[in-house]
């Protein structure tokens, strides 16, 4: 959390000028987009008559009611405690998103019909590719970070060359180089191993930098204390330095994991039957593109949300020594 | 153990780049002896004490600790470090471990002491530094003086033969200096060999067998505290003492 000053000031959403601005913005949006042909117009039938022929008057009246509702909603939420605020706003945003998707007029039975194969084949492959890549990327990152911080010229050169190269090339190009380039050298990799290799190398390079920064953030005194007790390098790293570096490392690493989960969709290019591949294949076959894309989008989102929760838990675990 | 001397320093010189921090330093610490090193800041006293467990490397001369000569062999250095405890100016406790775990880690991971025994040993030394009730807290929950006492207990848990103190009270509030010095004094009375870098002249007078005064990387003067404080031989020592003892 940011530093909270002890001076209580009035909530922003309860200041007249702010509410006025919100009102004006919503009003402007409602005037630009005509809402009279939606359920809102239906509700207003008693006031504006036949919605579709109500013209400027109907548009204005509907906008006014919507803006008033919106402002009232904001002001009321301003009164409730923090946790309730978070939940209420989340639910409202989620509902408006669902309403937005609903506007596409999706065929739900079709999604329901294809869900089993998406989950069994697609989700499994995506998770498999992502998890294995995360594992190898983490190992690469630890080795890379130690190499970059070591006084060894060879190790530093190799590690910095590695991070420079694999951070400098587009992931898609790395995938092509591995899948299409390596066979010319006589090394033929299947689609899934190629994908895992490309993802591991690329994310290992990014995470090397994260780990390096994390390890460097630990005070020199910790090394000295540990070594003076008699701990060797490995023990110091494992038990003293890395556990302390983790609170620094985890937020950006969580980012990388989520990003990797979604970038695993790139391996659909080389024909791996993961979520993205199935979404396009199934969608193209039946011309129901939007159904499949939105269904898969939701699956990706749910997976990412799960990872966010896991990350928050781990962060809390490693921050427990920061009590005052 | 071999010989009578815990630490022998012979003709030691050390450079940081072109700057020479230690000039031909000679010093012998006998077993059970308590030595206080004082001197103005930048005189090389911290550097010298950090050479004793090889946190700093010397470039010329010989240092022998517990009969083991300090050179580039990791095995020997590790052996020395196991038997030499060090207390730092900024405590350097492991913030992610509880106080108890700070004291248990060394014996468990290095000497292979079983967990239960390590816990008993840690509690024994935490009692000794009069802080056993804080055992399950994290270092950040303790005051500076308490943290430094935990640091002492952490070093003692390794059952060292020599204790090195690198300005143990310099980072503390005045009211906490006393509790840490009392702990060190208790230790001194039990016959622990110790080398202490400090500016606390009252402590030096009360505890030290020998006071060593350093300036500009050289040992200028050393002697028993009564003589050292009442009748310093060198001009530089007189000037230093007149400035330190003024308040």
TrEMBL record, chain A:
Gene3D superfamilies: MetI-like. One of its GO terms (cellular component) is ATP-binding cassette (ABC) transporter complex. GO terms for molecular function: transmembrane transporter activity. It is found in: Cell inner membrane; Cell membrane. Keywords: Amino-acid transport, Cell membrane, Membrane, Transmembrane, Transmembrane helix, Transport. It comes from the Bacteria. It holds the Pfam family BPD_transp_1. InterPro entries: AA_ABC_transptr_permease_3TM, ArtM/GltK/GlnP/TcyL/YhdX-like, MetI-like, MetI-like_sf. It is a multi-pass membrane protein. Residues 123-311 form the ABC transmembrane type-1 domain. GO terms for biological process: amino acid transport. The chain crosses the membrane at residues 17-36, 56-82, 89-112, 124-147, 154-179, 185-206, 266-287, 293-314. Part of the ABC transporter complex GltIJKL involved in glutamate and aspartate uptake. Probably responsible for the translocation of the substrate across the membrane. Belongs to the binding-protein-dependent transport system permease family. HisMQ subfamily. The complex is composed of two ATP-binding proteins (GltL), two transmembrane proteins (GltJ and GltK) and a solute-binding protein (GltI). NCBIfam families: HEQRo_perm_3TM. This is Glutamate/aspartate import permease protein GltK.
Automatic annotation (TrEMBL), chain B:
One of its GO terms (molecular function) is ABC-type amino acid transporter activity. The keyword Lipoprotein does not apply. Residues 7-241 form the ABC transporter domain. Coiled coil: none annotated. The keyword Heme does not apply. Keywords: ATP-binding, Nucleotide-binding, Transport. Belongs to the ABC transporter superfamily. This is Amino acid ABC transporter ATP-binding protein.
